[in-house]
Amino acid sequence: MSALREALRRVGVLSDLPDDTLDWLMAQGRESRYAPGEVVNHQGDPATEMLLFLEGAVEARRDEQGLLGTRYVARAGEAFEVSGKLPYSRLTVYPSTSRALEPSWVFRVPETAFEELLCRAPQLGPRLVAVMADRIRDSAQNEVQRERLLALGRLAAGLAHELNNPAAASRRAARGLRAALTELNRAERELAAWPLEGAVRAHLAALETRERAAPPHLSALARAEQEDALQDWLEDQGVQEAPDLAPVLIEAGLGVPDLTPLAALSRPAMNAALRHLGAHLTLAGLISEVEEGTGRISGLVGAIKEHTHLDRAPRAPTDVRRGLDSTLTMLGHQLRGVRVERDYAPDLPHLEASAGELNQVWTNLMANAADALGGQGQLQVRALTEGGAHLLVEIVDSGPGIPEEVRAQIFDPFFTTKGVGEGSGLGLDIARRIVQGHRGEISVTSRPGETRFQVRLPLEGGG
User: Fold this and answer.
1) pLDDT at position 161, please?
2) Does 210 lie in the same domain as 286?
3) pLDDT tens, residue by residue, 293-334
4) pLDDT confidence of residue 420
5) Each residue of 399-434: b (16+ CB within 10 Å) or e?
6) Does 331 lie in the same domain as 289?
7) Parallel, antiparallel or unpaired: strands 339-344 and 378-386
8) Beta bridge partners of 74
9) What number is the average pLDDT over the span 108-133?
């Protein structure tokens, strides 16, 4: 028995073929040997041969995805030892570039021999169809996993961006606290040198301890005018640090009427009192900045927990509003510049669902809307009940709309209008399957200026 015939018989689908059939097959095809790293076929090359892996292994990757893309491996003696163009396959070009992982021996059967091969060995037909079905299923699973990883990567990048701003602000404020404490201690010592009347001391204490209200929203010009006016008044009172004090006092919401009772003091005493007030307000402001920044970070961490539902059962009572809000938080960087409107029914019931899966649906729909809006326009997120039987979620954007010829295919797997490497075409297919897995339905209507995705999910006992 020749070495080639023996190697072909080790291929699972060929193992029981008679010698004369294998001899005929050997006469139709050709052998190829590859060193590690050598290209077996290039992406885009015509797919005209069935590849039988007799020794070694080959990996395939899409060129545009590089080393971080999905990796497919065909190895002699394993499930995918038969690859390339198969009988009944519609494959016309290789979808990826294959390279040998180790010294490899491949036998190539041209598609021109398929008809005669199936006549000589009809049992090969269902076997090769099963191989093709397994290959399609494995490819689809890999693409779904890649889509999930891409979505996670997008969220991680957005989260890093969102966390950076409050973290940086908190860090700046924390650095300023040491200097502010030093200045407050210095001001305490200066003020102690001047005995203040009870009423004046009480008024100063009230200014320092009263609840800080958010300063009114003013244009830059209006704020500058207020600061100039207060600075002029302070200078008229002989306050030496008026240019530095005026912005701090205006930021705290204080004006001339609040400071007038201090004008009864001698100028040195008033200077000491205002320096003490300014140091106290600066310290309080820095503490507020730290609280605000860390609160924002805490809120983002809470949104991550809510979005991923790592501590929840697969199916549990789910508040859809919380999932929608956490998704908006996670996608905040993509929606910057977009007007976001939330419209949730106040009596929205909880839904028995997988919160993590539904959040993947909301992520896909909102991320697509953000792409369509390009940093401007409006996104509306609605949640309400329909007739007590269904919960309806609508994601509506004011983008350019989806052309009719595209709209008919957007839920098809691997269909995408994005550039090479920008999308797998599985986001909406995954969303559709998740919704169907919850016994619901997803639909879209679109025209220029309004694209509306609707997700209907049955409530308990409904649908």
Assistant:
1) 66
2) yes
3) 787 777 667 666 655 554 454 678 889 998 899 888 878 878
4) 38
5) bebbeeeeeeebbeeeebeeeeeebbbbbbbbbbbb
6) no
7) parallel
8) 58
9) 90
Report the C-alpha gap between 213 and 220 in whole angstroms.
19
Name the band, by pLDDT with cuts 50, 70 and 90, for residue 395.
very high
In a domain, 34, yes or no: yes
- Count structural domains, the chain: 3
Element holding 370 (H helix, E strand): helix 355-373
**Residues sharing a CB contact under 8 Å with residue 247, sequence separation 6 or more, in sequence order:** 227
Domain that holds residue 212: 157-301
113 and 188 share one domain = no
Which residues on adjacent β-strands are paired with residue 49? 110
Give the lowest-confidence range in 15-24, 185-194, 340-349.
185-194
Same domain, 330 and 288: no
pTM of the entire predicted model: 0.46
CA-to-CA distance for 281 and 363, rounded, in angstroms? 42
> Residue 30 has which token pair?
């050709």
User: Of 284, 294, 323, nearest to 306 (Cα)?
Assistant: 323
Q: Locate 259 and state its tokens.
A: 């400071």
Q: Give residue for tokens 């169809």.
A: 129
* CATH number, domain with residue 61: 2.60.120.10
One domain, residues 168 and 295: yes
Q: Are residues 234 and 328 in the same domain?
A: no
Q: Is residue 14 part of a domain?
A: yes
> Which residue type occupies 261?
P
Residues belonging to the chain: 463
Question: Does one domain contain both 372 and 449?
Answer: yes
